[in-house]
Amino acid sequence: MAQLARQSCEACSIDAPRVTDEEVATYRRDIPDWSLVERDGVQQLERVFTFDDFQQALDFTNRVGALAEEVGHHPALLTEWGKVTVTWWSHKIKGLHKNDFVMAARTDEVAD
Ligand SMILES: C[C@H](O)[C@H](O)[C@H]1CNC2=NC(N)=NC(=O)C2=N1
Known about the structure:
Layout: H1 21-28, E1 35-39, E2 42-50, H2 54-71, E3 76-80, E4 83-88, H3 98-109
Antiparallel strand pairs: 1-2, 2-4, 3-4
Family: Belongs to the pterin-4-alpha-carbinolamine dehydratase family.
Keywords: Lyase
EC number: 4.2.1.96
């Protein structure tokens, strides 16, 4: 299967398909450091990135923000001293789309 990070995001729309359980299992192999969480019935992908100080955390936050703006698909970002929690899901379909796995893989690429 092509590396997730190399695939372009598809635009999310209200009728975009949520991933199946089998797809989740497959896609998760490319993003082993991400957790699958469920909040208010909404499946999400989440990872905590750690840094030496707040400025590095902020710089990373801005890199992820630029990525999100580039593709028009946005995460939740919690920026704290020395760490950033990134959470991906597709708001319109209240769950996970392939976009979210692609963006998690691309987030890993801008982490260092
Ligand atoms: C109008 C705007 O393009 C849409 O609201 C986009 C913005 N970014 C988005 N990001 C995410 N994660 N899910 C969405 O459904 C979504 N929709």
